[in-house]
Amino acid sequence: MTNVQPETAMVIGASGQDGYFLTRSLLAEGKLVHAIIRRPEALAEIAALSTSATTLNVHLIDVAEPARLVELIAETQPEEVYNLAGQSSVARSFSEPRLTWLTNAEFVSVMLEAIRLHSPRSRFYQASSTEMFGAGGSEIVYSEESPLNPQSPYANAKAAAHSLCRSYREAYNLRIACGILANHESRRRGKHFLTRKIVDHVAAIRTARASRPPLKVGNLKIRRDWGFAPDYVEGIKLVLRQVATRAARGFEARSPDDEGHAYRDYTLSTGRTHAVWELIDAAFAVGGYALDWQLEGADAVSWQARFRADGELAVQVDPQLLRLADPLEIRVDSSRARRELGWSPRTGLDVFLRDMFS
Question: What is the C-alpha to C-alpha distance for residues 10 and 208, in angstroms, rounded to an integer?
Answer without folding.
Answer: 43
